[in-house]
């Protein structure tokens, strides 16, 4: 299997952590890609020019983080996905989407983008998602899967790219984040 990714994508990190946690570390060839340039290999695998892309052993290119994570979870023999786990995965993905959208808007339009209708919606979504995730942080916390990894990557991305968004007062979420950051899969995939 190949994973097309880059170092700063929370989407790619989520897929990579899921692959490592599912036991595919030795089988997974990392292909470093640059979605901000015309990366020919990435474009051939994903016309949307986004990372991550998982190329299966059969040569099938899977894009979109949640689909990749579900595939790896199932391929690794993970338990059936209950609606509650899919809900948590959606919350984690939503946090990543809102944070990433904020970062990209600021990168291309300046910090004033936060005051736009879309910018304000993204920032409000981050706050609501943090509140909801604080409520969910203790549910099924011992039986980890990709839904938890998405949340932890989203939290870590906030700290990496949007440190002014202070979520340190959410003590259960902070404890959850610390616990997952101590795992080898997270240590091996830190943002750079």
UniProtKB/TrEMBL annotation:
Gene Ontology molecular function terms on file: transferase activity
Gene3D superfamilies: 1.20.1050.10, Glutaredoxin
InterPro entries (UniProt xref): Glutathione-S-Trfase_C_sf, Glutathione_S-Trfase_N, Thioredoxin-like_sf
Domain GST N-terminal stretches: 1-80
Coiled coil: none
Entry annotated with the keyword Transferase: yes
Pfam families: GST_N_2 (PF13409)
Keywords carried by this UniProt record: Transferase
Protein name: Glutathione S-transferase
